[in-house]
Every structure is written in structure tokens, then in C-alpha cells.
Amino acid sequence: MTESMPNEAVRDAWIALTQDVRTGVLLTMRNGKPFGSHVPYVLGDNWTRVYLHLSQLALHTQHLRQDPQVSLFLSEPDHAEKNPLALRRINLQGTATILSPDAPTYAQMKARYLARFPKSAMTFGFADFSLWELQLQDAHLVLGFGQAYQATAPSPDHWIHQQPERNK
């Protein structure tokens, strides 16, 4: 049995993952089926808020307008010397809404986005782009074999170690 890591160590691990990995797979619903798109993102104050700058022309944005349910999957890159089953990864689930330019957090999130992706500055001037806020309720984090954790938005820093069920 693998020992559980302290909450602080788990928090540090997911933060390191999100600092190392600048893009993820956004899963939206298309005709009742999952549809994946590769997107750059920035975090809010913790994993419960993520911000995307999306074009209205993109299929994933059209899907979000019909069904706001989302999942964002982030994973460290695979390399030949790594075991792909042990890669650090996090899967976040929730809903998406457009963040109004009048929202109190808009300027801060725009600045954070531009700091991480400076080449996207021109798209903030395009009329078809909007800043979206993912309001995430659930997180599933894998840090390696036997190191899977879950957390929920009401307690984002309380990570529950998933223990494998044993046959009795």
C-alpha cells in the first residue's frame, strides 16, 4: 500500500504541474458526446477557477454555448524514458461561463493570461474572442502509481488519497 502524501505536498505537486504544463485538453459536449480541444489556460487563485481565451468561431466555444459542462485535462509530457501510466496529471470538472469585461476579476485574469501568453495580446482586440471562466467543482490528481487524490471546490486544499479496494 502506498502512503498518502500530506495535503501541503499534494498542493505543491499540482501547482508544479500547472506551472510546467501551459496547455490542456478542454472537453466539451458535442451532440451528447465528449469533444476534446487543445487550449492554453491560466489558473485563478487555486484549481477551482481556470481561465481560457476562446474564439466564438471555435467548435469548443459553440459547444459551451449549448452546454456549459466541461472537463479540463492537464498532463505532463510523455518521454521515452518515462512510464506513461505514471505521468503526473489532473482532471478538473465543472461549468464554463463568459467572464464579462466588467467583472471584478477580468483585468487581473487578462493580465495573468497575457503574462503567461504574451503572443496572445492581439487576440484580446478581436471581437470574436472572449475570456471564459471555468468554475470547477471536482479534481482528480494522479502523481504516480498509488498516488491518486480527489478534492472538491468547497475544500480545494483537502486532498483525499484514493485507496484501492481490496478483495475480501
Automatic annotation (TrEMBL):
Q: Give the highest taxon in the source lineage.
A: Bacteria
Q: Can you list the GO cellular component terms from the UniProt entry?
A: cytoplasm
> What is the name of this protein?
Pyridoxamine 5'-phosphate oxidase N-terminal domain-containing protein
Q: Which stretches make up the Pyridoxamine 5'-phosphate oxidase N-terminal domain?
A: 16-140
Q: PANTHER family given for it?
A: CELLULAR REPRESSOR OF E1A-STIMULATED GENES, ISOFORM A, CREG1 PROTEIN
UniProt source species:
Nitrospira lenta
- Record-linked InterPro entries: HutZ, Pyridox_Oxase_N, Split_barrel_FMN-bd
